[in-house]
Write a structure and sequence with these properties.
Distance between the termini: 8 Å
Structural class: mainly beta
Number of helices: 2
Mean pLDDT: 65
Number of domains: 2
Radius of gyration: 27 Å
């Protein structure tokens, strides 16, 4: 933390873009001012669209800062339920989408009616997901799905969580049950699927990507038996983009497990399928915004005042 006196002496600005832990709406004071010398406006926007001509911008936060009314540093709050930073562009450039967050900084001199600084910095945000569809056990949050197939061949799968970062290991547990079946399970197939779809201004959803990211075959079980808890590990690929679910862009991942029977009848030959949605977080691309070009030496002709605002005078994301 920078000492308060040092901040005032060198006119440093500190901006933090994050959501406090255990944040409650009741903590917001509507009368509280975010203010700094010479009038400063901080604005966070969300921008998204499926092509260059189809872009929507929504304000997430705006604070007006006036001289001498606030002590530094201060925080810029974000909202729960925000999508991760996201960007997609296919090889020919005809299909693209972006969710981008920026901090806009504007400093004006009210006496001379002069804009001293007006810049923006892109920042990267991870999703804020509430895992409401989880069951809780003594060891932590548990997500469990149970599927029953005709012919009484049973398959259940479980993961310790459904929220992962690229490169993280997903631990899968599954149970096979053929105690009420006359057929065995010949094999179990595990897949991680990726789906990306855009909704254009004609309101038609178009599938852009439908890929199998991971597939692996596991042994089955003979008829009339119930397996113990079986385990399998999957390493999430490092190059995955974040899970996004919004009006215009849907980018999601599905963990799918199939148990294949050796039944001669068509109904028994259909595999048992269980699926779990997997939420992928954006891996933050940079820890600090780049302020190399934030250097201004502006002299007002009206009052002969001098302003200097350099990147060395700013401490962001300490």
């Amino acid at each position: 933390m920078i000492p308060e006196k040092l901040l005032e002496k060198n006119k440093k600005v500190q901006i933090t873009l994050d959501t406090p832990r255990n944040f409650k709406m009741s903590q917001i004071n509507p009368k509280k001012k975010y203010e700094l010398q010479n009038g400063t406006m901080f604005q966070i926007t969300r921008q998204y669209g499926v092509n260059e001509d189809y872009i929507h911008i929504q304000d997430l936060y705006r604070g007006i800062i006036k001289s001498g009314d606030y002590k530094l540093p201060f925080q810029v709050p974000t909202k729960f339920g925000m999508n991760s930073s996201f960007q997609y562009r296919n090889s020919d450039g005809l299909q693209q989408a972006k969710i981008q967050y920026k901090i806009y900084l504007k400093i004006s001199d009210y006496q001379s009616n002069q804009v001293i600084i007006q810049k923006s910095i892109p920042v990267y945000i991870n999703s804020r997901f509430k895992l409401v569809e989880q069951k809780r056990e003594s060891e932590g949050n548990i997500v469990q799905f149970f599927c029953v197939h005709r012919g009484m061949i049973e398959l259940s799968i479980r993961t310790a969580k459904n929220l992962y970062k690229p490169g993280e290991v997903l631990e899968l547990e599954y149970i096979l049950n053929t105690t009420r079946a006359q057929r065995s399970i010949t094999k179990v197939e595990v897949k991680l699927n990726h789906y990306l779809s855009f909704t254009d201004d004609d309101e038609n959803e178009r599938v852009i990507e439908n890929n199998i990211l991971y597939t692996h075959e596991l042994p089955g079980i003979t008829a009339g038996k119930r397996s113990d808890i079986l385990k399998h590990s999957i390493t999430i690929p490092n190059d995955l983009t974040a899970t996004v679910k919004m009006q215009f862009i849907k980018n999601h991942y599905i963990l799918q497990v199939q148990a294949f029977s050796n039944g001669l009848l068509t109904s028994l030959a259909i595999p048992v399928i269980c699926q779990i949605p997997i939420i992928i977080l954006e891996r933050r691309k940079q820890d600090k915004p780049n302020l190399d070009d934030w250097k201004f030496n502006i002299q007002s002709q009206d009052n002969n005042s001098f302003y200097q605002f350099t990147s060395q005078q700013q401490q962001l994301f300490n």
